[in-house]
Amino acid sequence: MKKKEPIINSLLDNDLYKFTMLQAFLYYEKETLGEYLFTCRTPCVNFSNTIGEINNQLDYLCELSLSSEELDYLRSLQFIKPFFIEFLNSFKLNRSDICASIDSGGALNVRIKAPIVNATLFEVPVLAIINQIYFEAKIQELKSVNGESVRACGLRRLNEKLNLIKSVSAGIRFSDFGTRRRFSFCWHKQVLERIIDSKCPGFMGTSNVYFSKELGIHPIGTMAHEWVMVHAGITSLQNSTSMALKRWLDFYEEKQCIALTDTYTTDYFLKYFNNELANAYYGVRHDSGDWKEWGYKMVRHYEKLGIDPASKILVFSDNLDFKKIIEIHREFDGKIKLAFGVGTNLTNDMGFDAIQIVIKMVKSNGKPVIKISDSPDKTISYDRGFKEFALGEIGRNG
After folding, report:
1. H-state helical runs in 235-317
2. Architecture (CATH level 2) of domain 16-143+356-397
């Protein structure tokens, strides 16, 4: 059978925060080893018929390097430093650093193990590959959604969202955060082109660096849970939040400074988010738990520190759709600045259920790490003893 064309054709087809984190990892932790595992949160998904193509696409991915034009684009971003461009000039992902297989029940296993600076750029394109292959097979199976072609259904739903957001506009600002769970590369591009053509008010840009370059839109992103988790392996769970926040601030000098609060729960984060850090960081991002509870918790924390909440921003990015965005905006408008990052609902709303897949770090510097979050079902750790310790530590001090 003829091999399919590559799904990923540029190393820039990745989220901006993977590049900002890689740059900082290269500066602080060039030798530190990381280990990452794939998890499918959607039950009973069988990948047996897709594993061959997944491995073919991983082969393609590891052949890519950045062109001089792509390096020039990265160089044009004010927060990208010369030493990082020099590193990327010869950078390739190493095929021996990633292994994909299936078990007897058809569950997909993906493991990445390498120095963090060689491993971190795998996550987003690998998830995009898995999604696209899975949904290509789904199209062959379903053909249509209630008599409507899959793409026609997706376009109709997208237009409904854009019409909805236009009807209420009123200062709502949103960005595309949908690379990792998109339906396909081509559909992702079509979504962004449609948003641009619609002149939708409040569209701020995309987390995808390739599309920001090709379509001339603003690249969006700062840090992920991985940034904090790496530091747990370097220092300790107890010291990792403070160390990660201070290092990021020192390196980026108040540029790109939106803090993610829920690596070990927001309550635990706020213990370390003191006056100095809360003043220096432009805002915080919500990625799990009840959005209203979290939002008011952050407003009260700023007020407690004597900081005017109206000078800060809340970025919401947890499982958003446009109706929820409008609800959140109505709740907090006038109290604090707001922005929204929309993922699956923007790039993979095609009339059937998306699959919930992630790749998360499980070891840093040879030590087990954990992501706890504000939603118990999102807790990820593969070391039972460390998980019990971490949950105990967070429970006592959160």
Report:
1. 237-252, 266-272, 275-280, 291-304
2. Alpha-Beta Barrel (3.20)
